[in-house]
Design goal:
This protein is mainly alpha-helical and 169 residues long. It has two domains: 95 residues, Transcription Elongation Factor S-II, Chain A; 35 residues, no CATH class. Helices cover 54% and strands 5% of the residues. It has seven helices and two strands, in the order αααααβααβ. The longest helix is centred in the N-terminal third of the chain and has 22 residues. The chain starts with a helix and ends in a 21-residue tail after the last strand.
């Protein structure tokens, strides 16, 4: 069955975020027969799917395949060969996959709707001409800002305090 881009994204995240660290820590022997059968089914579905660059940018499936057949991998040999075959096929009609970059800002990207608010520096210059010390101080503290469409005021935190985190966590 051919996969859509959302299913590709789910499978790629499962391989990279769940199985990847597990295999890196404990080796390929930790994968159960059920997990290997599920990965075989994913590879079978990938063979039936004609991928586009937009699908790869959205799902990041090529990163999951590259993780499986990377230079210092501990994945089972059969899965490595299937991942290498998939990468070779995709590079045959899409070009080098190392050049594929995620679409962060566009439709469907992780930062869709986030925009940088410019104009703080211009406001500082305008207020310095009027010599209002309170406005000058407030404007200099906020030199740039980000805005999320439909989001709350970016200058206010959702909660006060450390929220249970220590510095650097």
């Amino acid at each position: 069955m051919a996969l859509n881009q959302e299913a590709l994204r789910v499978h790629a995240r499962y391989i990279r975020d769940v199985l990847g660290p597990l295999v890196a820590r404990e080796g390929g022997d930790v994968l159960s027969p059920t997990t290997i059968a599920a990965l075989d089914a994913i590879f079978a579905d990938l063979e039936e799917t004609v991928l586009t660059l937009d699908m790869l940018r959205y799902s990041r499936m090529e990163k999951a395949m590259m993780e499986i057949c990377g230079p210092a991998t501990r994945w089972p040999t059969g899965l490595i060969k299937m991942a290498e075959r998939a990468i070779e096929e995709w590079e045959g009609y899409l070009g080098p996959l190392k050049r594929v970059r995620a679409n962060l800002w566009g439709p469907g990207g992780r930062l869709e709707g986030v925009t940088k608010v410019d104009g703080w520096q211009q406001r500082v210059r305008d207020e310095e001409q009027h010599q209002d010390p309170e406005l000058i101080t407030r404007s200099k503290e906020r030199k740039s800002s980000w805005n999320v469409e439909g989001g709350r005021d970016p200058a206010r935190a959702y909660m006060l305090g450390h929220n249970g985190f220590s510095v650097g966590e």
